[in-house]
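Entry for the shared binder. Reason: the reviewer on the internal report wants the predicted structure included alongside the sequence.
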Amino acid sequence: MLKIERILVVAIAFLLVSCSNISQYCKHGNSYLSQVLRFRQQANMESLPMSTVTYPEDTAVKKVTWKQLSDVIFDRKWDEKMQMPMLYPSFSRTIKAMHGKNISISGYVIPVDAKGGMYVLSANPNSSCFFCGGAGPETIMTLKFKSGKPAFETDDYVRFQGRLRLNEKNIYELYYNLDDAVLIGK
């Protein structure tokens, strides 16, 4: 193939991907997340395992950006139970210093199990999120609400406040978790 033909093919592919709604073809049911949910049901767990770490009272709220949370390196290791390679994070010192702290962060809400109240906050809209669009796992965060099961629409852009909990080892949770999450703005 000539160089010009290759460039045209790449340009056309790029336009098709960027100008279409890929999320309509994305099925969250055939992914790592569906395996985690299946294992959770098999284990008859109401919710994913929670951290038992306690934190000192800290009322200051730090505004955090997704760019700050991208300062992480991933190591790929084979997991026997999942029968697939898994990514294990190595967080930077800056991110580790935020563990257990009250933060606020904005992002797009992605419903994982809307009936069960399981939502993820993403740096990107659904069509380009970690599950559908190939963004990295550092661009999503589990929302564990302080009370109730609020309802959100896909791609609602909102700001939450809560306690950041990092996960380096539990493959059944995301790497970033916002515990006691409270909606503070749309």
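Summary line for the report: Residues 3-18 form the longest helix (16 residues).
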